[in-house]
Amino acid sequence: MTFSQPSPAPPNKVSPEQCKHPRVQIVSRDEDSEYVECQECGDVFETSELKDMAIEEKKEPEEE
């Protein structure tokens, strides 16, 4: 008899490495920081990281 393990993420979820975090929701706030959770992949990060990700995405260094 074979038991299948449940997958860690539902098929409609995107892995955090591939996700561009188009929809986020604030999950925590303190004096200096605000944390958000991506509604697509479930990754949680600081809002300053999201801004950094957007900046890096716009740069897109050209690789040869």
Structure description:
It is a single chain. The protein has 64 residues and is an alpha+beta fold. The protein has a domain of 35 residues. It is built from 1 helix and 3 strands; from the N terminus they run βββα. It starts with 23 loop residues before the first strand and ends in a 5-residue tail after the last helix. The model has no long low-confidence stretch (mean pLDDT 77).
Roughly what fraction of the amino acids lie in strands? 15-25%
Distance between the termini: 51 Å
What is the approximate shape? Answer: flat
Q: Mean of the pLDDT scores?
A: 77
Radius of gyration: 16 Å
Total beta strand runs: 3
Side by side, the strands of the main sheet go 1-2-3
What structural class is derived from the secondary structure elements?
alpha+beta
The helical percent reads 10-25%
Q: Low-confidence parts, pLDDT < 50 over ≥5 residues?
A: none
Order of helices and strands: EEEH
Compute the number of helices: 1
Note the quaternary state here: single chain
Major β-sheet, in short?
3 strands, antiparallel
Protein topology:
Blueprint: E1 24-29, E2 34-38, E3 44-46, H1 47-59
Antiparallel strand pairs: 1-2, 2-3
Task: Name the features.
64 residues, alpha+beta, three-stranded antiparallel sheet, 1 helix
